[in-house]
Amino acid sequence: MNATPNDKLVTNLMVLNRAGIHLRAAQTICTFMKPFHAKAKLFKKGLEADCTSILELLSLGAEFGEILTLSVEGEDADDAHQEIVKLFVNLFYEDDIAAEPR
Asked: Which helix (H) or strand (E) holds 52?
């Protein structure tokens, strides 16, 4: 079941890859968002980044172990939300090793 245009999905996500959200990870997020009509944003301590903007994602300075808030809304919000969560869980599909944050 997909969200209606007025639904908003909000989830807290931990950055599990050691490099944080760096250029390659930001590009992966943007690439995965291309097929979706939903609007997705990540928030960190008062900063906000559109998930279709590499520069905005990099400006978060999200490092390993930090908690970000993901907000997704729009007609295919459920699908977009699931894909972004999978990216975080799967370390942005990089060959990085997850470790417990300090």
From this structure: none
